[in-house]
Amino acid sequence: MRLPFLRAPNADQTRSRAVATRTGRHIGVYEFGDPSGRPVVALHGTPSCGAGFDWADAPARERRLRVVAPDRPGIGQSDRVPMSSVADYAAEIEALADALGIERFVVLGYSGGGPYALAVAQQLADRVESATIVAGAGEIGAWATWKDLARSDRQLTWLSLHTPVVAKAILRLAEVGARLVPTVALWSAEAELPKADREVMRSLGSREALALFTQALAGSAAGAVDDYALLARPWHLQLGDIRVPVHCWHGTADTSVPIAHTEALLERIPDVRLSTWPGEGHLALITHIAEVLDDIASSPG
Question: Given the DSSP bridges, would you call strands 272-277 and 128-134 parallel, antiparallel or unpaired?
């Protein structure tokens, strides 16, 4: 299974809290950086959770940015919410922003979080200052295909769509394995990564890297399965209606999400630009987080 190896929090639960929204639901939230800084709503990859942005804590604090990283529905401490498409997720972020007293914010979407960030940018244009999409996944059946996905993601996505019970069982077994034999789990995940990503992963040097995966499945695997399925269905987004500035970033050697997925956005979004990291892979955000946050911090509020 390809896991997003972002360093897990030093104290896994202390930064996570369940925020009650006006909808009566609870959303699990991690916060990093400067608590009084400019808000950045960071949307995690798949399968992962908000804990995956812990490594951005110090760089965000230095730039006076407040990183709010919610768990998507059914993941971590977030209540499961029935959604028919990616587009439905914008309402959850609106409810979260209201509950936290955040009027305007930047939205950042990484990997599987990219499509959800685009939904927020389209539907909450009066509150979103800009959108940052890093290695964002493409819409299958539109400009992305099944063969673009890494083998494990392709299998889990298909199972999540057609036999979700089996997908849940596989994820639960993977979660147990990650807790009991982390060395084997890390080795298995590394086998699917290109050289550039293996080097980034090894530089982290911590078996705790799996914690963000196990935290995502702490209550149930249902949320992760829902996430896989939604990303594979039509998003129901009108990308041409996005009016906020969008800055896309992508490593040219990314084999998990091909750069072609991002290049397709250049043809569909009015105000969009692309920055690339030559020869780098899906985990390039880790080594270039300062560059990405500098861009966010310097953008108009």
Answer: unpaired
The predicted-structure confidence for 195-245, as pLDDT tens digits, reads as follows 788 777 776 654 455 666 677 777 789 999 999 999 999 999 999 999 999
Helices and strands, number each (H, E), in the chain: 12, 8
Residue 75 DSSP SS3: coil
**16-298 in CATH: which number?**
3.40.50.1820
Query: Residue with structure tokens 């939230």?
Result: 29
Q: Domain locations in the chain?
A: 16-298
Q: DSSP 3-state helix, strand, coil percentages of the chain (rounded to 5)? A: 45, 15, 40
Q: Which residues contact 108 (CB under 8 A, 6 or more apart)?
A: 40, 41, 42, 43, 117, 131, 132, 133, 134, 292, 296
Burial environment of residue 226 by CB neighbours within 10 A (0 to 12, 13 to 18, 19 or more): buried
User: CB neighbours of 230 closer than 8 A, spacing ≥ 6?
Assistant: 83, 85, 86
pLDDT in tens, 111-126: 999 999 999 999 999 9
**Residue 193 confidence (pLDDT) above 80:** no
- The answer to whether residue 29 scores a pLDDT higher than 80 is yes
CB-CB contact of 248 with 276 (8 Å): no
Nearest to 192, CA basis, from 255, 127, 263, 271: 255
Residue closest to 137 by CA, chosen among 112, 108, 154: 112
